[in-house]
Amino acid sequence: MRIGVVGTGYVGLVSGTCFAEFGIEVVCVDKDKNKIARLKKGEIPIYEPGLEDLVAKQVEAGRLSFTTDLAEGVKGSAAVFIAVGTPPGEDGQADLTYVRAAAREIAGHLSGYTVIVTKSTVPVGTAREVERIIREENPSAQFDVCSNPEFLREGAAINDFMRPDRIVIGTESEKAAEVMKALYRPLYINETPMVITTPETSETIKYAGNAFLATKITFINEIANLCEKTGANVQDVARGIGLDGRIGKKFLHAGPGYGGSCFPKDTLALTQIGQKYGAPQNIVETVVWVNAERQKSMALRIIKACGGDVEGKRIGILGVAFKPNTDDVREAPSLEIIPLLQEEGASIAAFDPAAMEEAEKHLENVQWCQDPYEVAEGADALVIITEWNEFRALSLEKLGSIMKTKTLVDLRNIYKPSDMKGTGFQYISIGRPELRPDGKPVLRAVSGS
Fold first, then answer.
1. Which of 109, 122, 150, 301 sits at a 20 to 30 Å CA gap from 199?
2. Which CATH architecture has domain 2-197?
3. Is 422 exposed, middle or buried (0-12, 13-18, 19+ CB in 10 A)?
4. From the CA atom positions of the chain, what is the Rg in Å?
5. Which residues contact 119 (CB under 8 A, 6 or more apart)?
6. Which candidate, 381, 430, 383, places its Cα nearest to that of 406?
7. Which residues contact 416 (CB under 8 A, 6 or more apart)?
8. How many CB atoms lie within 10 A of CB 181?
9. Which residues are 94's β-sheet partners?
10. Residues 404, 405, 410, 414, CA torsion sign
11. Known catalytic residues?
């Protein structure tokens, strides 16, 4: 089989490469000539573990190619995937400008039956709109439109594509459904569930899934605030409720709030969809507000750890990506926390294994360092914002010897309080008792919110 993928961003590049791994001939199309030129040279424009090697393997095998010519991607393809960006507009709704443009251009190159697949995250009704656009542009075209949302986690995208929890296919055409099932045939070996449903249901599943996960994160963060006032341990609470099969243990890790390219955008879009159809999503609206306030409160927490004043103080930041194993800083807590600290007079030194180049586009007056120890040199406080593995086994003795003040603010709970006792650090984490430099807990600690 042969398919075309329109858009070589995160979703398009990962999906196209993984389909090629399935043995399918894939042509990835993008208007960005520079990006296509880089891809042809083997340069990957995004950071995703394992992707560079997989792209090289599929290109060498002749199953994966890159072009700026849309006709080349459409011609002879059993399916053409639309995987262009859908950034949030000023009102929070997903901007479908690129989706509509792709549909119009694809229409002009269709010859023979083709399944047009919306892979981008799009509002309910988009598949129908794409169908209408193509019908208007090319009334004689033989095609069906299918919704096939992606569920790829940055940092684990290849595994998520190869071993997904489910495949969702939204179409009312049996012929289109058969084409889609043929594309995903290798997953039958793993007995991957396939949800065949209507386009509207498929589109809703994507938003509902992300909104529910964002709600779990926000819920445990609220519980963490309570734990800090009572002396309870949020990690034990999360384990205690997560062992209930009805709840599950995933996405119950308290922290500085969710970020990234999906959760902020999709929760906001879902609230707008609810307003549009007269079905307000009150819970999700609250989640959006609470998460925004959560990120702001983390800056206040850091200021409090520094005695209530960071004027003229050096604050070291470990991790600026919204999560480990990615260079993505979109809606990352660091982009909220760092400027707030700077407004209060703090000087910032930071390190991230992958995201500093991207973060530099959004943050000013930050000293970018080569490693965590350069960050800690002379720091009044060291703050862990992203839970990279590189930060899990730092030499506390070395850190203490080079820091001005031995204060560690662990916003990801990657260290155990028991390990911090006897180190001389003031240790502040999330949803757990604060430790004084003498190792004694400070009960009923007031959170930064």
1. 109
2. 3-Layer(aba) Sandwich (3.40)
3. exposed
4. 24
5. 5, 11, 12, 15, 81, 82, 83, 148, 149, 150
6. 381
7. none
8. 15
9. 88
10. positive
11. 262
Please provide the average confidence, as pLDDT, over all residues in the chain: 95
pLDDT in tens, 167-199: 999 999 999 999 999 999 999 888 899 999 999
Rounded to whole angstroms, how far apart are CA atoms 197 and 186? 21
Residue-range domain boundaries for the chain: 2-197, 198-449
Per-residue pLDDT reduced to its tens digit, 353-372: 999 999 999 999 999 999 99
Cβ distance 30 to 177 under 8 Å?
no
Query: Quick one: pLDDT at residue 94?
Result: 85
pLDDT band at 286 (very low <50, low <70, confident <90, very high): very high
What is the rounded CA–CA span in Å between residue 72 and residue 26? 11
Interval 254-281 mean pLDDT: 94
Output the six-digit token pair for 70. Answer: 């849309």
Question: Are 382 and 408 spatial neighbours (Cβ–Cβ below 8 Å)?
Answer: yes
Query: Is 0.85 topped by the overall pTM?
Result: yes
Q: Whole-angstrom Cα distance, residue 164 to residue 306?
A: 44
The reply to whether 2-197 and 198-449 are identical in fold is: yes
Phi, psi of 306 (to 5 degrees): -95, 20
State how far the Cα of 319 lies from the Cα of 370, in Å rounded to an integer.
12
CA end-to-end distance (rounded Å), the chain: 55
Q: How far is C-alpha 251 from the geometric centre of its chain's CA atoms?
A: 13
Write out pLDDT tens, residues 17-48: 999 999 999 999 999 999 999 999 999 998 99
With beta carbons less than 8 A apart as the criterion, state whether 134 and 107 touch.
yes
- Rounded distance between C-alpha atoms, residue 208 and residue 185, angstroms: 26
Nearest to 82 by CA among 121, 41, 55, 56: 121
Q: Does domain 198-449 have CATH number 3.40.50.720?
A: yes
Are 206 and 121 in contact by the 8 Å Cβ rule? The answer is yes
